[in-house]
Amino acid sequence: ARDTKAVGATMENEYPVMTGVGEMRMEKSSMPEIGPDDVLVKMSKVGICGSDLSMVYKGKVGDVMMKPPLGLGHEGAGVVFKCGSAVKHLKIGDRVTIEPGGPCRMCDFCKSGKYNNCPDACFHSANGPMPTPGMMARYYKHKAELCFKLPDNVSQEEGAVIEPLAVGIWACKRSDVTIGSTILICGAGPIGLVCLIS
């Protein structure tokens, strides 16, 4: 096994960057420096969301135009490579899934625990400015409080789809769907399918 502590400072990070509609390139940078509340995750599995494809091929997500350069990937799981000094719930080697948001922590939504509604949240990778790459990077820096340890019976592949699964679970919860409910799911893509299994 490789000693990640010893080699981390000399390694480079590598990641795809969307440079324009239909245009991508691989870039390298020095390893991200982490703060006391951050972790550096060596990415293992990353999903390709429909929004990633829309950004690359259309230059927008929904009606929102994207401003390249942009990193890609916001559905991911990996292994903790480095921990900030204040991180207590994770350690090097822990397998984690990552919640991709970056809430401001200052607005009323954030202060009331509804940080998912933060109007100033940075959703990686849709508006994460470079040189902050998305989760398709080999190494990804994120707030430790938004990284969750995976149980031993959950694979890295399953960990990478927890973010879209959460969308389906929340849609069903918000719609008051219960066992025996009759519903119509419009769309058989990944989100429609996770609604079905939720």
UniProtKB/TrEMBL annotation:
GO terms for biological process: sorbitol catabolic process. Residues 35-152 form the Alcohol dehydrogenase-like N-terminal domain. Keywords: Metal-binding, Oxidoreductase, Zinc. GO terms for molecular function: L-iditol 2-dehydrogenase (NAD+) activity; zinc ion binding. InterPro entries: ADH-like_N, ADH_Zn_CS, GroES-like_sf. It comes from the Eukaryota. PROSITE patterns: ADH_ZINC (PS00059). Its cofactor is Zn(2+). Belongs to the zinc-containing alcohol dehydrogenase family. This is Sorbitol dehydrogenase.
